[in-house]
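example protein:
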Amino acid sequence: MPALGQRRWREGARRVVPPIAIAYVAAYLVWRAGWSLNPDAPVLSALLWGAEAFGAAMLASFWWMVRRPVFPQAPPAPPGLSVDIFVPTYDEDAEVLEATLAGCAAVQYPHRTYVLDDGRRPWLAELCQAYGAEYLTRADTRYAKAGNLNAALARTSGEFILVLDADMVPRPEILERTLGFFAADERLAIIQLPQEFYNRNSVQHDPKHPEWHEQSLFFHVIQPGKNASNSAFWCGSPAVLRRRALEDVGGVAVETVTEDLHTSVRLHARGWKTLYVDEPLAFGVAPQTYVAYAVQRYRWARGTWQLYLGKESPLWIRGLTPAQRLSYLASFLVYLEPLQKLALVSLPPAIVLTGQLPILAPVGLFVPLWLAYVALTVAAVAVLSRGWFRLFPMELYSFLRMIAFLRAMLAVAVPRPPRFRVTPKRVERGLESQERRAMVWHVAVVGGLTGALGYSVAAFLTGDARLSPAAYALVSFWGAYDAAILTAAVAHVVRRRYSRTSYRFRVRLPIVLVCGALRWQGEVLDLSLHGARIRVAGEPPPTAGCGALLALPRQRVTVVVAREAFRRRVAGGTELGVAFAPPQGDMRRALIEFLFVRAPLLEAVQPRAA
């Protein structure tokens, strides 16, 4: 089918399928409420109907948010604007910060870089000097990142501020691709960019499709959809902000731990505009471990609950348009999703223990209608997602974040003084046991579902008459599906191994190994600051102590092989895993710039307009 025909077919499906699905789901819920609830099991009936109704609300809000996405094209950046780059940091490693500073130094548009160090580390001041950045600190760490940014605002003067997390390495053209939007609209306060990550082996990446991660749908579909209602919001980093807009709302909000979302609400309430630009212009470190992932999702959920229940909630703060309120409400629903998941995984054990079905209608009638409900919902989400829909991984991550979101609800219901926790960036050896301990509640849920499944099978085989054979079959299928998803989620975490402390970029670079008078031509297959996987012709002798001449695109870099990690025979030669002696000076800087500024773009997800 021609490309134009494909686009027309997809656009037609986006216009037709979601309204049909929403109409059917609404009719299904009316039928369920009026003719299928079991009055003898009111609690179970309410839980199931509520879970289904929540799914319908999620579908309708998703359709409303993404039905008319806006993908703006960057106008030229005018010369002469004053720009500050802010890099707030607390306890990140030197290597992480050095990569970010190398990226900031490579940014082409004239700017000043400020490292905002709440850790007050003398070595970081020296690192800043080496990369031409200015070092700022403050007397206390009040209000964490938000307070750090506000302290820097008072000591700097740039018209525009590029905010980068300490692990977020910018592309050289990041300011040329964003500043033009501000020149075209004086009321534009924020440009948010996608959060893309160079460590594509993180816990939030799909191993089978590493270009996809848990936030792909949000950054490539939902945020462009929010552009249509001027409700795209600041996600912390990477983003460019207009200083005058921040000053108009009193600086970065400090009352919640999601200062970016909270500040966005204030800006929208004051009539400022925001814009999302779906172009990968910086690459950071995704939470590598489940523990780090859970810390980050807990903080997001707790801060969102604080905001939405507070006096500046986007649901009732003055100044927002109805469309903006709906958009913010749609984004909030994801933090209620754990209640739906909890209901759905609790129902199979509850049914087999009580012997009561939450459905009064015959199974033979209910199942086809329910299957149509599920199929139409999935079809609608798939066509609206523009190629970013992954049913099984999305279900898996929904269960993975369930416990963190429930803990956040509990923390808001039983308030305690909030403690800001930076998402851990460091990967240390021996994390496997910590990861397994963090999955104890997920394993407990799997155990409960497995027990319910076993009970259903035993009851069916022994002729237990409390439920019909068809009902036992339905409950068994339901419990088995939930158990399979949860088991896959647990396996996704506990099977992971952390033998390396730094990410290896997949590259193809010429290399020459020099051992005395002997030289071997080869190719680098993956590369980090600390080592590489190399394929060479023939069978070289032990390479420890040999020089390795790397042909980077802009210059040649020489490193020393400290040791071999492995070697194996392959077709036409030998594959080696080698560790480098720490490179120093200009060699180190060139390697860092290549790895963290140039190499991530080789695997980057490119923007999609359809």
About this structure: Residues 3-36 form the longest helix (34 residues). The CA atoms of residues 190 and 386 lie 25 Å apart. DSSP finds 19 helices and 18 strands in the chain.
